[in-house]
Model the fold of this input.
Amino acid sequence: MTDTPHVVKRGEDAEYESVGAADGMRKGVLLDESDGAPHFAMRRFELDPGASVPEHTNEVEHEQYVLAGSYTVGIEGDTYEVSEGDSLLIPAGAVHWYENDGDETGAFVCVVPNGDDDIQLVDE
Done:
């Protein structure tokens, strides 16, 4: 038996908000420490067609799983075309960016350790 309570949240209960650093990107928190998750936060992101996220870093690692669409991700100078079923590990502090040149909304699940996940834009 564990001291951590189990949680089941319905997809329609997730509230989405715009990501300040990017027009056309939304984030919905699926689970985090406010739900009793002791170690990780799970979020769902949506990237509209034509949207992009500029080069940035985060204090924590990101594990991502692409749910829908296809889009481009840049990580530390390398560029990848990703689509449904692909997984990514973006290490803490790695410079990365996103761009959706397709006609379909891209969506991915992103899991991060609980804590500060603020975006730090890279000065050009």
Observations:
- The domain at 27-121 is CATH 2.60.120.10 (Jelly Rolls).
- The chain is about 0% helix and 50% strand.
- The two ends are 51 Å apart (CA to CA).
- The mean pLDDT is 92.
